[in-house]
Amino acid sequence: MPAMTMIEAIRDAHAIAMERDDTVVVFGEDVGYFGGVFRCTHGLQERFGSHRCFDTPISEAGIVGVAVGMAAYGLRPCVEIQFADYVYPAYDQIVSEAARLRHRSAGDFTAPLTIRMPTGGGIFGGQTHSQSPEALFTHVAGLKTVVVSNPYDAKGLLLAAIEDDDPVIFLEPKRVYNGPFDGHHDRPIVPWSQHPLGEVPEGHYTIPLGQARVHRGGDDVTVLTYGTLVHVAQAAAEESGIDAEIIDLRTLVPLDVDTIVASVRRTGRCLVVHEATLTSGFGAELSATVQERAFHHLEAPVTRVCGWDTPYPHAHEWSYFPGPDRVARAMREVMSA
Amino acid sequence: MPAMTMIEAIRDAHAIAMERDDTVVVFGEDVGYFGGVFRCTHGLQERFGSHRCFDTPISEAGIVGVAVGMAAYGLRPCVEIQFADYVYPAYDQIVSEAARLRHRSAGDFTAPLTIRMPTGGGIFGGQTHSQSPEALFTHVAGLKTVVVSNPYDAKGLLLAAIEDDDPVIFLEPKRVYNGPFDGHHDRPIVPWSQHPLGEVPEGHYTIPLGQARVHRGGDDVTVLTYGTLVHVAQAAAEESGIDAEIIDLRTLVPLDVDTIVASVRRTGRCLVVHEATLTSGFGAELSATVQERAFHHLEAPVTRVCGWDTPYPHAHEWSYFPGPDRVARAMREVMSA
Amino acid sequence: MDNPIGPALQLRIPEPARGHRPADPVPYISAAGEMRKPDLDEKVERIALMRKQLVRVLDDDGRAVGPWSPELDADHLRQGLRDMMTVRSFDARLLRAHRQGKISFYMQCLGEEAIACAQRRALRSDDMHFPTYRQQGLLIAGGYPIVTMMNQVLSNEHDPLKGRQLPVMYSSKEHGFFSISGNLATQYVQAVGWAMASALRGDTKIASAWIGEGASAESDFHAALVFASTYQAPVILNIVNNQWAISTPEDFARGASATFADRGYGFSIPALRVDGNDYLAVYAASQWAAERARANLGPTLLEWVTLRVGAHSTSDDPSVYRPDDEADRFPLGDPIDRLRRHLTVIGAWDDERQAALQTEVDALIADAFAEADSHGSVKSGHTSSPSTMFDDVYATLPRHLVEQRERMEG
Amino acid sequence: MDNPIGPALQLRIPEPARGHRPADPVPYISAAGEMRKPDLDEKVERIALMRKQLVRVLDDDGRAVGPWSPELDADHLRQGLRDMMTVRSFDARLLRAHRQGKISFYMQCLGEEAIACAQRRALRSDDMHFPTYRQQGLLIAGGYPIVTMMNQVLSNEHDPLKGRQLPVMYSSKEHGFFSISGNLATQYVQAVGWAMASALRGDTKIASAWIGEGASAESDFHAALVFASTYQAPVILNIVNNQWAISTPEDFARGASATFADRGYGFSIPALRVDGNDYLAVYAASQWAAERARANLGPTLLEWVTLRVGAHSTSDDPSVYRPDDEADRFPLGDPIDRLRRHLTVIGAWDDERQAALQTEVDALIADAFAEADSHGSVKSGHTSSPSTMFDDVYATLPRHLVEQRERMEG
Ligand SMILES: Cc1ncc(C[n+]2csc(CCOP(=O)(O)OP(=O)(O)O)c2C)c(N)n1
Ligand SMILES: Cc1ncc(C[n+]2csc(CCOP(=O)(O)OP(=O)(O)O)c2C)c(N)n1
Ligand SMILES: [Mg+2]
Ligand SMILES: [Mg+2]
If D131 and its partner were Cys, which of C368, D135, D331, D344 is the partner (CB 3.0–4.6 Å)? Predict the structure, then answer.
């Protein structure tokens, strides 16, 4: 199996989807000729022509709005928002239109589109290149929300998202585009080629939306997380010596409740970790769900380790980012609670 | 003390704010000459002139965008979004601009604006006149979010919001504009004039943001709720005979954690009730917070009674709405858990 | 080196003198036949010179004059009259149903019937319209079952949208009518996307986008024009200028521009102002725009000058903000009256036939309503099963909705 | 009755021939002095006739010609030259700091210096600019301390923004420079709001909104024009057309329009295309627009034709998408060279003075950088205290942030 970065895996998924289904079209700002500022669509215009992959004016509302119209026509648009921080101009088209079109028309029109966007911090991007807005989508009925953490998943989940008949928000933590970043920003970057999840099968495969992945088995505490923080949690487990079971949720809506509940019932403890701001983050939903469904098994309160409730700072990003020390500390607290 | 509807109380708060501070300006769609589709700004243009209260083009992005600019100049805009369902075109200006302006400029520029909007269902408004989007604001650092449930609070909280130096999202459940609707949609409407919270003092007073109100004292279970559902919870308590302590949160961010935790520690049980869709709703944050801070006092899981995870339906709105029967059933379940 | 200071600044806050508006509130009214008809590929600059003119075909005497007069035989014209009368009768019946307490809400298009009816007939049935809530004429002129429309409005068991949508928010892919959104303007850019998709596929179908003049202030209007202009999408961009957006007159959205057609010229999109109460002018201008789109000549913007004769909706009371006699003073008359007069002038119509048609149309509507009403309504509790609300949130029901549905039922 | 079908539809997908662009990519280049200067209150229709022309003052020989030539004495012109050279030297020094690994990110304005520098001098110091990330010239020409700018870029302990913002995202209310947002276009409508506020208060200050030609496709651009047109706000609406938006050429946002000035005419907002590399033209056009605003004549849109000579940012590699020799082939030359030649032509400048000024400016920048650098940088770990990140989220620290701060510190 070839080793791929997450960028290559995403590119590959695009190419396979476009190859198999000529209704798949790909567009966004700088996505066509240039191949995307993170190069995730590099080569697609050359290979499939500018009618399948093209640049757009700088208008997120326009990108998603025309995608909804194209989807209603019968295409499967897969669009890129250059940074998740810039999705808000398109928020109305996503929330009021894509998410509800099937329901409001009783299935007469549908919106099978995929909206990809790089999320998360760790690249000194400041408040407008670092956000993790997943909770702003998970609250919206009709949307599916995916967050990827590694190349293998990224390819299989992106293919599943494009093939899915509902609108999918597809979040790509940019900090793991090139390697499994574990939060130790002062250490050398580990490339995906040195990680088993960097091994990506050739050809078509999908990972069903709604299935979590047990990233690391363990008995002490269940860690619910996704994206970059999967690797941070892994580092925290190793460094703290706590035998954490780390669940990479992969899809936030629909959520794999069974995997979560089975694990928490076994460990009796649960830590929720994400990079987005704490208040009303998706961690709140996870915490609420866990205690609703595993209340009598819990030996300690479900604890959240998240970004602070501040804008994502530029210079202080490592104080904001929930790194391995903070996660390990929380693990210890949950173990001793 | 005069009896006022919530509409009259809101109007009165506007007038007092405009009277006391000539930097307060009020605008929005149909807000000026006509006085708002719910009449909440009726009479203001006549009294204060069209330079203080005026109509705008139909552009929520424009309304909030110019309000941010005006606030940066030194005014205190109080704007109306005609229905909360239409706030999304303004979402970028709220989330990326109003919410972060003070922080990103280190206090050099600020955005002391109030964004009012009618929320909630119960008027056969279908999916675009019924939404309760509070959780889409509570996740955003820099915003304060208020939901009112009665005329007395509405006046005091709106004055506090307008006088607040930060951007405040001010949600007005339209179903309680004219009376304390308890969810029994088949019974005659009770007007505010027959309810103690319809008695509204003349002149200026404020209710500090961040203070909850114990709507009904009780020992069996703590009900955390806000807006219309305060009255529904009241009905459910009366009808079920369960001695619920009903806390009207009033402000969601910042949250009055002390009042909440003190109550739950005493009752040992907690029910969270809101009209918005369940998943990632503000109820998730409440549930997470309660179990983080009162874990060892809880005798039953914190339970949520919320809108289903579907668009708000037109014909089936009473099946969607978490009415007194559903709330009472949940109370009984929490009591017997 | 500071530059000179000025006087105290002022803002222009539009404050049209409601209740005492000038007799002729609509500027730039050309005579019928006055405006020339450009070639389909005429330079946009030259077409722009006509942006303050008005495409009109029917003159005051009911004659069809000038280069825009479409070649429509008497059968087609009679059909157009019938379409418009059906729409008007439909609206009247449902307004009555509202007064009878059978429905919670209704929106009529009184006075604006020509626009949707004629455009529907000028386009092909496989083109796709992205309408607002005032284009019921598209469905009626397109032959969509009237009983089904009424079932939707009543939200009864036969409502194809299963009671999910407000009355009048129809949807019919089969009839080229995109699902109506309650959120203004969103459909405008979607129409451009649909048109782009059609062209990307080398298809022949075009899209038609609809918006009210008030909603053209929304941001999605801009996105639509940007994308339509950049990709030269085969789309018709309709702006229905019915003079009002709830309580605000059209100049709030128009600003200092002379016309809404101006907006198109900001993007080099050919734009015509058209007498929206003139069935023939509507037909001709729609046809012209459609031919441009079909010939790969790109988008066309059409400003329809008309009047919202009634209230905004059944929730609205316009007496507070507009003069009573506005419809009487409106210079473009009534679309049904005008087409009827034309048919009479060309000898294809008379009072008897008119009376007979009115009776026929009213009976059709009455029968349709009786049938729809027999299926009950939301008010009578005859709706689809509440548990259907969980369907179509997603293509397949996810587990959390299965659980919620069980909870609701249990 | 279905209407005729057309041929297979096509989409125009702009695919400018990158790498082999035509020699003169900028259309409609007027000669210097050619374009007349309208009265401040001239009818917008008449001004519109000039939308494809270009306001130019400096001719190829360095002479200032025509009606737009502003009355600026040699001192002012030398000051302008100094401003621009300071900006260029500032940019060069910080690009070097980036290469040295002292900062993570930088954005220069190479080739576009005239626009911000001259407009800043043409307006008053109490007017408010709502800039993008390429108007550092506003601060430098406005006398904002250069060391403070560098402290911001270095995110060091003296950064007034406390390390919260990306490099170049300055803010200074005192210097009439609104806090820069990373989100494109949001500032455009805010500027209109600020101008409206000034006018609502009967104040005399005006606002100036800035946007890149690429970002003019964003929806907030529309909202700004709608509100500016409707309320006739005292605002200058600048569009800096530097030919590129990261990798996409300007025609993606412009679409089929001939110019970005066209956008203004869609709203009856007078709009000029101006040679952005001509300091005198920039000054004169800015002054004209400011006078219009101050005289309560409403908004003016100014399209500045210029070239982004460098990369989009330090994260960008333009060699992939643009020809190397674009700057050489750009017909409007370099703003510093052109003003220098003019000063020489009028006998107010020579090579020696030029060399002396260059030395002075470079020393100034070097000293400033040395001072800023002595306060450290984010890379050296010399920032404000991390716990300051909790300040200014709200006016006063709410309880949950107090707790979080404690948790972070503990
Ligand atoms: C985004 C959004 N904002 C506000 C509204 C409320 N609203 C419904 S119709 C309307 C007026 C629309 O006027 P216009 O576009 O002129 O259409 P008309 O009603 O005249 O046909 C308004 C403000 C809405 N539905 N959606
Ligand atoms: C809302 C939003 N979308 C996308 C971006 C990413 N982005 C930053 S700069 C840029 C190009 C802007 O081009 P232009 O407006 O022409 O300005 P220039 O860089 O040429 O000065 C893009 C796409 C952003 N910052 N904000
Ligand atoms: Mg209208
Ligand atoms: Mg540019």
Answer: D135
- Give the tokens for residue C299: 């988008």
What's the pLDDT band for C20 if we cut at 50, 70, 90? very low
Q: Give residue-wise pLDDT tens across range A148-168.
A: 999 999 999 999 999 999 999
Ordered by start, the domain boundaries in chain A are 6-198, 213-336
Give Cα separations from A238 to A216, A221, A242, A300, C155 (angstroms): 11, 13, 7, 21, 59
Residues C210, C238 contacting (CB under 8 angstroms): yes
* Cα–Cα distance, A145 to A209 (Å, whole number): 9
Of C166, C247, C253, the CB nearest to B33: C247
Q: Which residue of D lies nearest to A87 if distances are taken between CA atoms?
A: D183
Q: Is A129 a catalytic residue?
A: yes
pTM: 0.98
CA atoms of B87 and B116, how far apart (whole Å): 10
Catalytic residue among A42, A103, A129, A297: A129
- Distance from C-alpha of B296 to C-alpha of A251, rounded to nearest angstrom: 31
- Considering the four listed CATH numbers 3.30.470.20, 1.10.3720.10, 3.40.50.920, 3.40.140.10, the one that applies to the domain covering A213-336 is 3.40.50.920
What is the least distance, in Å, from the CA of A246 to any CA of chain D? 24
Residue appearing with tokens 């950064």: D159
The CA distance from B125 to B117, in Å, is 15
Residues 286..315 of C with a Cβ closer than 8 Å to D: which? 287, 290-291, 293-296, 298
Residues of A in contact with C215 (CB under 8 A): none
Tell me: pLDDT of C246 over 80.
yes
- Dist. CA B88–CA D226, nearest whole Å: 18
What angle do the packed helices D219-231 and D186-200 form, to 10 degrees?
Answer: 20
Nearest to D136 by CA among D183, D77, D83, D72: D83
A79 - beta bridge partners? A27, A115
In this predicted model, what pLDDT tens digit does every residue of A267-316 receive, in sequence order?
Answer: 999 999 999 999 999 999 999 999 999 999 999 999 999 999 999 999 99
Count the neighbouring beta carbons within 10 Å of the beta carbon of residue C80.
27
Please provide residue D141's backbone torsions phi and psi, each rounded to the nearest 5 degrees: -70, -20
B54 touching chain C per CB within 8 A? yes
Q: Is the ipTM of this complex over 0.90?
A: yes
**Residues on chain B touching C11 (C-beta within 8 angstroms):** 51
Q: How far is ligand 4, taken at its centre, from the CA of residue A162, in Å? A: 32
Look up the CATH architecture of domain D44-314+322-379.
Answer: 3-Layer(aba) Sandwich (3.40)
B158: nearest Cα among B201, B209, B98: B209
Q: Is the peptide bond before C331 cis (omega within 30 degrees of 0)?
A: no
Q: Could you say which DSSP state residue B3 is in? A: B
pLDDT band at D6 (very low <50, low <70, confident <90, very high): confident
* Best of D178, D187, D196 to mutate (most B CBs within 10 Å, chain B): D196
- CATH superfamily for domain A6-198: Thiamin diphosphate (ThDP)-binding fold, Pyr/PP domains (3.40.50.970)
Q: How far apart are CA B46 and CA A171, in angstroms?
A: 50
Nearest to D50 by CA among D273, D225, D258, D284: D273
Chosen from B22, B60, B70, B259 to mutate, greatest number of chain D CBs within 10 A: B70
Chain D contact for A193 (CB, 8 A cutoff): no
What confidence tier does B135 reach under pLDDT thresholds 50, 70, 90?
Answer: very high
Residue A106 to residue A295: CA distance in whole angstroms? 38
Q: Which residue of C has its CA nearest to D3?
A: C124
Identify the closest residue of chain D to C283 by CA–CA distance.
D3
CB B188 within 8 A of CB B194: no
